[in-house]
Amino acid sequence: MTLASATVAAVVDAFLVVWEALAHVGGLSDAVTATGVPSWLTVLTGGVLVGASFLFNSLLTDHEAIRAVNAWRTHLPAPATVYRAGATALSAVGVAVLALVLAASVLGPAEPTRNFAILVVWVGWWAGYAMSTYVVGNSWPAVNPWRTLARLLPTSGHRDVPESYGAWPSVVGLVVLVWVEVVSPLAADAAALGALVVAYSALTLAGAHQFGPRTWFERVDPVSRVFRLYGRVAPVQRDDDGIHVRLPGTALTESDGREERGATAFVVALLWVTTFDGLVATPAWNSLATAVLAPVAPDTVVGRLAVSVFYLVALLVGFGVFLGIYRVAAERSRKRVQSFLAPSVIERWFAPALLPIAAGYHVAHFIGYFLTLSPALAAVLAHPLGGVGAVQVAVLPSWFGTLQLAFVVGGHLLAVWIAHALAMDVFPGVLRPIRSQYPFVVVMMVYTMTSAWVVGQPTVTPAFL
Amino acid sequence: MQSTAGPGRHDARDADPTTALETSVRDDETAAAVCPHCGRPFAEAAARDLHVGELHADDCSDAEREAYEAAHESERDDLFYFHIKVVAALGVLYAVTVLLYMLALGSNLI
Predict the structure, then answer these.
(1) Looking at beta carbons, which residues of chain A come within 8 Å of B24?
(2) Which residue pairs, CB below 8 angstroms and at least 24 apart, start in A297-301?
(3) Residue range A17-74, pLDDT digits in tens
(4) Are A87 and A142 spatial neighbours (Cβ–Cβ below 8 Å)?
(5) What values do phi and psi take at A243, rounded to 5?
(6) Contact predicate A340/B31, CB 8 Å
(7) For A152-208, what is each residue's pLDDT tens digit?
(8) Are the Cβ atoms of B11 and A71 closer than 8 angstroms?
(9) Residue A40: closest CA among chain B residues belongs to which residue?
(10) Number of independent structural domains in chain B
(11) Domain span at residue B55?
(12) Residue B35 counted as domain residue
């Protein structure tokens, strides 16, 4: 051994001796163990972060600078031929996937984690593709296979959907779709899923035929509306000038000019159904459902009907509660700044700020699901009609729960920023926009904490389903 | 922390959608001031003055511009005290959060 290495060894030995001694000082080494953060504190921290972000926002008074940040964009060069070729390719992929889903629902293996239809619809499309609409951009108008088919089929004379109906048909559609998805075994039964896809295709193509593809897919179809709304959170935006990249969420600060009745209700409904999806898988919900449905025999026809009605009532009551809370918050906001804007105007004006919350909750809820089943999805994409060997799933690291919470909080932080920017445009001065946000921030803090609690709960199969 | 909610904000949009918003003054409310350019009612004259200066900057008369400047200055004073409260609230929030974590992780109290 050289002198240098001997010295190093001596220093290390001395250090270890001191370290051992310190570890036994005061006898703390046995008492101090690494504890996780208790769940109530995690939930509370989510609310604190949202409240703190509002306080930080209220320190920013340079409205011109805020507007400049929100308006920033770069143009993506997209020559017409490239654009149209890309759109055509996406449409072709959409139709091909639809055809394969229908084929696999009938011909594929019964096991859900090996069936192309189940994995592509729930993991690939409803989780993965939906995430792409708010992380990258809304490509649904091109990918939508029903829109492609509706354009190829001849259309009849166009009936009109009355203006007074507004967006309400799509609200009804969304509630019905989510209800059907929750109460029927679509997540596990490929044949049932195939039947739903056929029914949806028939209804959509008939509607597009009767009312014209544009009216149908822009006003009535809930799926297209969901992706369009999610798309406004995304960085890649398309308008008459071409394709731009902006900061995420900033497209929400620009009004898209529509004044549809029921558009606000749809946004609230989207938020509610995303929460509902997570809520029905919690143990607390299970206890409630078991208590309410105790006298019901789940295997009889009456029993199944009772379960379906129970979940529909829960869906509608929750939607009503969410809408009521939003209306109360908007009313209190109006009172706070003594504004004479019509309450419906305030509700409509701030509704876009709810979309980052929905997106944040969606990614928190579905990213674990998507990543866990992504190996199965990849396998099934290679063998659409079966022939996959053992199903592989990914195991998520232990810190993934914290990541999901971060997404929920992140959605709310973006929402606070967007709401502040929206308030600046509709209330005069600097203090009034800030004060107008008090009721909304309180609601958001409560909602963050509730969502954080739901995301942190262990997942159980919803009762009676 | 410069405070500018100033004029000249028509760049981002072609047609400003905020000047044609529906208003409703309820029976138990009274409009103390109305914007002479777009007719929007306000509960305080200061609010109307700020609105005129921000949204109708190009059509302002000199009197309206002076009223706007006055309202803007008065709001800056209020903003100063408001910001002090915000910073205090942030400090308290931070301290309480850190204390809660210390108690939760480092003791048997909670």
Answers:
(1) 340-343
(2) A298/A464
(3) 555 555 444 444 444 455 678 889 999 999 999 999 999 999 999 999 999 999 999 9
(4) yes
(5) -105, 130
(6) yes
(7) 888 776 788 888 888 999 999 999 999 998 888 877 888 999 999 999 999 999 999
(8) yes
(9) B104
(10) 1
(11) 20-106
(12) yes
